[in-house]
């Protein structure tokens, strides 16, 4: 199943959102940090710019991080809970440069509810399409960032937060080269 464009956009935002919390320092510590993140992600609608809003958003982030690696049943439960708690009401809209896509709350609903329903609806699509394999964790040993694999051949292994792919590439190259240099030469046959 091919995921809809608004689904992949929402999943990309959700992965970036979760990954703001995996490094140190956390990159969502202030309302200004949150503004910057939402602008980067072109997330529209109202914002309170309060610490309460930030706290609610960070709570949502922790929930989504758990769901990203949950099994199907736990993911479905989590998605339903997010949709229920936000009193989601799906509406199809188009605005700005976005074609037809779903909104599940009004633009005036609290930010965390709008972020929750957007992520939850996208995760519902992932479940419906049997595409859970697209949600993962970075393969680099010292990294716990989440990954979203949108490649055709399911080849994504590393996160987008830093340099994990390059770093691992260099590491495995060095390991291979070291292995070649220390391994005994094959004995010559008689
Ligand atoms: Zn929209
Ligand atoms: Zn990584």
TrEMBL record:
It comes from the Bacteria. InterPro entries: ABATE, ABATE_dom_sf, Znf_CGNR. It holds the Pfam family zf-CGNR. Residues 170-190 are annotated as: Disordered. SUPFAM superfamilies: Jann2411-like. Residues 134-177 form the Zinc finger CGNR domain. Gene3D superfamilies: Jann2411-like domain (1.10.3300.10). This is CGNR zinc finger domain-containing protein. It comes from Arthrobacter jiangjiafuii.
